[in-house]
Design a protein that fits this description.
Length: 453
């Protein structure tokens, strides 16, 4: 298998294949950056849990999930920009590229402002302690904490467009570096707080939300005044009519994002409602352990979204078929890695978290299986996204999202955390198998009807 992988990489990185050269370069750079990011992320979890208690950490995870739902209110503009910008760059149309970037920033700024005003109005009216099942005296002023988180999100909602731009122009490694710097900044801040400030969720939230925003703002100013000068957003380049063009591509993505929200962001709510905030921590600790595998796979697959867009515009089906085989080989290797991690997971958790880490073999086994299935699904979904063939995916995600919540609640009440993970796994298995079949049909030129949309 290693020899096959080596041969594929040698073929794909030949001098006359700049698309693959860019993808492999970004993968290698991202592996270096995100390798450090994985270490920082693991240290961040253990450091955060030691700074506040497990109940408060579970509450924070639940809050971040709820506010994370607001990400999907970009109405598909982010992914729409990603595909449209990749096409503009493939056609070497820099004027359109700058208009797309400027218009997206303006649109998201308007949406972000409306979200802030809405949350500012309704936040005092919500009994968050009751809604989140928070024990008495577990945190301070939860309403104030929610205001901090939501406000910071509305700002990040706008400035994170930089990451979309970098990914669309085949520079995701730079986006990974920016994220790494933000994570490292949080880790340093928490390490300082542990020595000078008593453990407090409100203080932690300030560190977790403010630092990534600051890093993104500084990075935006630097990049748009240097290497990305040709894409610098400008009021003069805003074209309202381009919103429709972006939305034509991003509208379906928006609905898919809503479905994805229900698939990815509801677990913490289900868990805290059924099993309590402590179980949210147990679930997320195990999830973050296995996310080491999924993060590596995401590093590999991310450059290929826009690369497949470029190849499809240029009708380079040979490249797409060869690349798909390489990605699937990578999936197989990381799936084996997931099984290895399962076997050492108890020891790994003890080294990582210490005695505070609860361990359950059923939970670890279900998470390992989930990881393998999730990577298979992600691989083919990313390719279809790059090809802009998302109609079937839309149907699958909507059905899966509507099924996952009641199914997750049902299995969660019977089997606990493994049951909730099992529900996710089944949904992703169906989506992954169907999407892989669609990718094969498109690349072989046999896709008709819904398979071609």
């Amino acid at each position: 298998m290693l020899e096959t992988l080596k041969a594929k990489i040698t073929t794909l990185t030949r001098r006359d294949d700049p698309r693959s050269q860019a993808a492999i370069y970004n993968i290698l750079m991202s592996l270096g950056v995100k390798g450090g990011g994985i270490v920082v992320n693991l240290l961040l979890v253990s450091s955060t849990i030691s700074y506040i208690n497990t109940i408060q950490y579970g509450i924070w995870l639940t809050i971040s999930s709820i506010v994370g739902w607001m990400t999907f209110f970009d109405i598909g503009l982010g992914n729409g920009l990603r595909n449209k910008l990749a096409i503009a760059m493939a056609e070497e149309n820099r004027e359109d590229a700058r208009i797309l970037v400027s218009t997206t920033y303006a649109s998201l700024a308007a949406i972000g402002l409306m979200l802030f005003l809405f949350f500012f109005t309704v936040n005092p009216l919500i009994d968050w302690e009751k809604f989140l099942n928070i024990p008495k005296n577990a945190v301070g002023d939860i309403t104030y904490i929610m205001m901090i988180v939501s406000t910071s999100f509305c700002v990040q909602f706008i400035v994170q467009v930089l990451n979309t731009v970098l990914t669309a122009i085949h520079k995701p490694a730079i986006a990974a570096l920016i994220a790494f710097i933000g994570q490292l900044g949080i880790l340093v801040a928490i390490s300082i707080l542990k020595h000078f400030v008593e453990g407090d969720l409100q203080t932690l939230v300030w560190a977790l939300t403010f630092i990534p925003i600051l890093v993104l703002i500084i990075s935006s100013i630097y990049l748009y005044s240097s290497s990305l000068r040709f894409l610098t957003p400008s009021i003069k380049k805003i074209r309202i009519k381009y919103v429709k063009s972006i939305m034509n591509t991003g509208g379906t993505f928006f609905i898919i994002q809503i479905g994805a929200m229900l698939l990815f962001q509801t677990n913490n709510i289900i868990i805290t409602k059924i099993l309590g905030p402590t179980s949210v921590t147990e679930f997320n600790v195990m999830f973050k352990l296995f996310s080491v595998i999924t993060m590596v796979f995401t590093i590999v697959i991310t450059p290929y979204w826009s690369a497949f867009t470029d190849a499809y515009v240029k009708n380079d089906f040979s490249w797409m078929k060869n690349t798909l085989r390489l990605i699937r080989t990578t999936w197989l290797g990381l799936s084996i890695g997931s099984i290895v991690l399962l076997m050492v997971s108890k020891t790994a958790l003890h080294i990582w978290i210490g005695d505070k880490a609860p361990f359950s073999w059923p939970l670890a086994c279900s998470m390992a299986i989930y990881t393998v299935v999730f990577m298979w699904q992600t691989m083919h979904v990313y390719i279809l996204n790059g090809l802009n063939k998302v109609r079937l995916q839309l149907i699958l995600v909507i059905v899966g999202a509507l099924t996952n919540i009641p199914f997750g609640i049902y299995l969660g009440k019977i089997y606990g955390l493994p049951g909730i993970i099992c529900s996710n796994t089944i949904v992703f298995l169906v989506i992954g198998l169907t999407c892989s079949f669609q990718v094969e049909k498109i690349l072989n030129g046999t896709a008709n009807g819904l398979w071609s949309k």
